[in-house]
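HOLO CASE FILE
Compound: magnesium ion
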Amino acid sequence: MNLLEVKNLDIDYVTKEGNLKVVRDVSFTLKQGESVGLVGESGCGKTTLAKTIMRLLPDNGVISGGEINYKGENIVTKNKEEIRKLRLNEIAMISQSAMNSLNPVYTVGEQIIEGIRSHTNMSKKEAIKRAEEVFAIIGLEKKRLKSYPHQMSGGMKQRAIIAMALSLNPSLIIADEPTTALDVVVQDKILSQITEIQKQTKSSMIFITHDISIISELCETIIVMYGGKIMEKSSSKVFFKAPYHPYSLGLQNAFPSILDIDKGDLISIPGAPPNLMGELKGCRFKERCPFRTDKCMEELPELKEIGEDHQIACHYPERVDEFREESKKKETWQMVSDRIINESKGDA
Ligand SMILES: Nc1ncnc2c1ncn2[C@@H]1O[C@H](COP(=O)(O)OP(=O)(O)OP(=O)(O)O)[C@@H](O)[C@H]1O
Ligand SMILES: [Mg+2]
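Model generated. Tokens follow.
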């Protein structure tokens, strides 16, 4: 059985201007012990999806369709108390700015021990022992449990948060850009510790980042999102050798270090993600895709199987060789940039 099955999930934010269709028809599964990387540009709905799985959407967030089955039960229909038990015990989240959520008035140890005790029947002594264990795993000395947040560096605080998330042996860890606020060296170290822990505890993980190069080392599966939809889903092994979707090919140019591309030729995808308000027609990537046709302007491409454990949402999977060749050229993306400028003049 899958640990997690997200099925045709739709999420909206209700705003004064109308509904923002922030996630649409997202489906994926996660087996026990499997790690999946969720990537995509800022605003594509990654955090929204993560918060929804934790049922932590803000008040104006609405699950407008689909299911989230966790250990075979649909958590979309669970009540607040059932969800509270699920959090931390079963599913733990390490968020983008988690280190700022530590309470300055209490020591870090007090906060972790309180977290453990409010979710288990552990005695204070047992909880202290567990806190010391998780501190050791994440590379913090146990005397640090007595520190107040202001006595710790950013890297230490983020480690403490990760320790807190792991203290109850969750089956699923959702890490939403857990190291973005830290410098690169600390980032690398923490990332390898997280992977180590995940392997040791056989937890599953959803790892969210906008940097696809991190995923190649960390996750078995990659999901590329754009404008609230899945564009490509693949085993990392296959993806990092040969991505398929035009958007993935564009992302690949922006992160050449993991692929055999000349580093001198960093090309970013011109334009910006689509506005998710109002009616959305055709492919979400159409404004920025160098290969779009009339069909892409009108018809939404469904996510289709193109190989074992490999799916893409593009009308033209058979043209992949041509797309791969063309997407390596600067002129290809320059054409998109010119087209966007021309179209905006037309709108003015
Ligand atoms: N409470 C809210 N009300 C209305 N719109 C929101 C709300 N929260 C987020 N959004 C919008 O929803 C979209 C998706 O946001 P989300 O935070 O899920 O993106 P993300 O992929 O995590 O981006 P980032 O990489 O910057 O963290 C964005 O356009 C954002 O502005
Ligand atoms: Mg986010």
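CASE NOTES: Residues 184-201 form the longest helix (18 residues). The mean pLDDT is 90.
CLOSED: yes
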